[in-house]
């Protein structure tokens, strides 16, 4: 691992999304602000929710998680797809860069975008709610592991996709539905009991629940199992992406 080579890849990825801040940073901030305003403030004031927990405080961790997921996934998926389309990935593969340096560079860039957007969302939320984390180590862990996990997932889709439309398929038909039924806007107890199992097999439920616990101290799942699951998933995806880069799957033509 060469720090200079790694930092060069990461710097390029950061510069890539910083060149179009309206699309990569401002648009997600506006979207999150609308979620906070409509679901947290306007509707939240009319919802009788959990005792001692305001609805806006319950909803905000999920909104923050949404921005982490979409920001990290979009950055790595679209960036790798672009480099494959323009054949610039071939130059990277023939350079002195190792596979781990390339993959980690993409991850750092995607994580940086997710953190910048989520920091802006956090700043907006301070105006409306008590956004002080109840457990800072847990908060840092979930923010980082989710960003890395979806950066890796984005790389997998960036490798697989042959058309631009395919990059949006996962986000539109998989991630968005899973997020909406993953406990972002409601407690699991608010759902019919016969579909609780559906929520509990949704991996995003454990991400939202974990970051919610880190912020307001409220949880509906086994946090230790969720943390191990997310960490294990990130390690497996990292190993898979490295392997696919080594064999040149859809990278060399």
Automatic annotation (TrEMBL):
Residue stretches in coiled coil: none
Keyword Secreted assigned: no
InterPro entries reported for this sequence: ABC-2_transport_permease, ABC2_TM, ABC2_TM_bact-type, ABC_2_transport
Keyword field: Cell membrane, Membrane, Transmembrane, Transmembrane helix, Transport
TM stretches of this protein: 20-43, 63-82, 103-127, 139-160, 167-188, 223-245
Domain of life: Bacteria
Entry GO terms, CC: ATP-binding cassette (ABC) transporter complex
Places the protein is found: Cell membrane; Membrane
Membrane topology summary: Multi-pass membrane protein
Pfam family, one: ABC2_membrane
Molecular function via GO: ABC-type transporter activity
Residues annotated as domain ABC transmembrane type-2: 19-248
Recorded family membership: Belongs to the ABC-2 integral membrane protein family.
Name of the protein in question: Transport permease protein
Organism: Candidatus Uhrbacteria bacterium CG_4_9_14_3_um_filter_41_35
């Amino acid at each position: 691992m060469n720090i200079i080579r790694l930092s060069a890849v990461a710097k390029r990825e950061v510069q890539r999304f910083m060149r179009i801040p309206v699309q990569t940073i401002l648009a997600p901030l506006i979207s999150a602000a609308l979620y906070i305003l409509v679901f947290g403030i306007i509707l939240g004031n009319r919802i009788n929710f959990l005792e001692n927990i305001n609805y806006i405080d319950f909803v905000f961790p999920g909104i923050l998680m949404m921005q982490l997921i979409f920001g990290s996934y979009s950055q790595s998926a679209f960036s790798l797809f672009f480099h494959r389309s323009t054949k610039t990935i071939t130059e990277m593969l023939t350079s002195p860069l190792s596979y781990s340096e390339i993959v980690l560079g993409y991850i750092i860039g995607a994580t940086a975008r997710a953190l910048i957007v989520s920091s802006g969302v956090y700043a907006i939320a301070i105006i409306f709610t008590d956004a002080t984390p109840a457990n800072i180590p847990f908060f840092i862990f979930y923010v980082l592991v989710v960003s890395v996990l979806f950066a890796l997932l984005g790389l997998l889709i960036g490798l697989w996709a042959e058309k631009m439309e395919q990059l949006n398929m996962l986000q539109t038909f998989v991630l968005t539905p899973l997020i909406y039924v993953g406990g972002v806007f409601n407690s699991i107890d608010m759902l019919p009991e016969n579909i609780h199992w559906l929520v509990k097999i949704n991996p995003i439920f454990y991400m939202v629940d974990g970051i919610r616990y880190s912020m307001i101290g409220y949880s509906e799942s086994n946090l230790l199992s969720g943390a191990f699951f997310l960490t294990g998933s990130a390690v497996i995806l990292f190993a898979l992406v490295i392997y696919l880069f080594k064999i040149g799957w859809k990278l060399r033509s």
